[in-house]
Amino acid sequence: MSKKEILTRGIIKENPVLVLALGLCPSLAVSTQAENAIGLGLATTFVLLGSNLVISLLRKIIPDRTRIPCYVVLIAGFTVLAKMAIEAYAHSLYLSLGIFLPLIVVNCIILARAEMFANRNSPLDSILDAVGTGIGFTLALLVIASIREILGSGTWFGLAIPWLSENSAMIFTMAPGGFIVFACLLAAVNKLSKKWGVREKHGCANCPSACSNLPD
């Protein structure tokens, strides 16, 4: 793949939320406000970028049998750095994100990119992959959160919207509203992907995982 394809793949073709349906728990939990979505998206992008880079640099040193524990330790380190920075410089955002900020360490998006890409590619390509995936994750969160905040609270980034602020539908700030918005966006993305031929077929033949090399 070209550098451009690596960068844009996580934004469009393999968007972690709207195409691969990964990281749904934090995506739906914190997406009641656009500000929270931006905060979690940037924090996740930082952890993705740091872990992808370090894992790519150490991919020939880390023993194959212990690579997953090593990945988790590295990801946990960058998660702590992100948590401490947000707690120090954006305390209100830190309180809003709550438990989902430290839980970045177990976000399957980050571990998947480490195992499927950073472990097998150069540092530059791993950085591009992390940036693209992080942008795709942040944009997906922002779209979901914007719809839920506008319809559920009548605001956007805390700014009141005329008429909607007085006639909001509270269900969109609750869990059922999150699932409704996500389902509608997922259906729209699937429809557009089929129309434009964007989405690639996934299966054993196209899977980059090395599970096929494992012994029976």
Describe the structure.
By secondary structure, the protein is mostly helical. It has one domain (3-206). Helices cover 60% and strands 2% of the residues. It contains 8 helices and 2 strands. It has a two-stranded antiparallel ribbon with strand order 1-2. α3 packs antiparallel against α7.
Largest sheet: number of strands, sense, barrel closure = 2 strands, antiparallel
Oligomer: single chain
How many helices? The count is 8
Class of secondary structure makeup:
mainly alpha
Topology:
Blueprint: H1 3-9, H2 24-29, H3 34-57, H4 67-89, H5 91-97, H6 108-116, H7 123-153, E1 155-156, E2 159-160, H8 175-196
Antiparallel strand pairs: 1-2
Features:
single chain; 216 residues; mainly alpha; two-stranded antiparallel ribbon; 8 helices; 60% helix
